[in-house]
């Protein structure tokens, strides 16, 4: 006997009734009446020529033949559910963009702008990884990254995003700030550094200050932590313009005397040169490349 498509409603009703051992509960699940479920089951029994349920005063119970069919129907429904979930998950994966970037840039530059992206593209999901190490773009890894450097990474396509500049900042409550009138005076303050490629020595040299005794009281591996230490009045920090802007805007940090010096590195959007970007990733790249020209 071959399964016919017109049997499917009856099989669905039977599978639910077998699982609940109750026609009324199966009807509630299927949004049918109990008599409709009973009709489907009797039709199936007539087509198969066997009794699938024993009817008695307390309800129904499966016969041996009914148990065999119930097990098979349950397994088949589970397989179909698994495929449907997989197909739905594959669709969701198409709309997911995995991004790797610096914690400081994500926290202070990217995240404040993301409401614009989600408003324009509500169906795209973002996974953002802020590991400090350079992530490998293996299969199953990130789709793209935002990196700070010279723009040359083997195997990666690099699109220029924005340049940066360095200048000193400090909390307006920092002790001794009232005595800072020119760049050379900053060396008298407790200084905070991070692990960037350009530090206080580079900045003082670029501004023409010679012989300054640099007192780096605190050093942090993460730029965000260095900025927060300065916000809390621990010292002056050499800030990157792109990530210091929120602190300057709310007044928790103020610029100190001295010029901005160009950063040696700049920000780039990168992705594997050999990999074809999915539409969602391309949409994010197109959007993020527009952001440096947008007001904060």
From TrEMBL:
User: Does this entry carry the keyword Cell inner membrane?
Assistant: no
**What PROSITE patterns is this protein classified in?**
HTH_LYSR
Which residues does the UniProt record annotate as the domain HTH lysR-type? 1-63
Q: Which UniProt keywords apply?
A: DNA-binding, Transcription, Transcription regulation
Per its UniProt entry, which superkingdom is the organism in? Bacteria
Q: Which family does it belong to?
A: Belongs to the LysR transcriptional regulatory family.
What is the protein's given name? Answer: LysR substrate-binding domain-containing protein
What species was this sequence derived from?
Answer: Stigmatella ashevillensis
Species classification: Bacteria, Pseudomonadati, Myxococcota, Myxococcia, Myxococcales
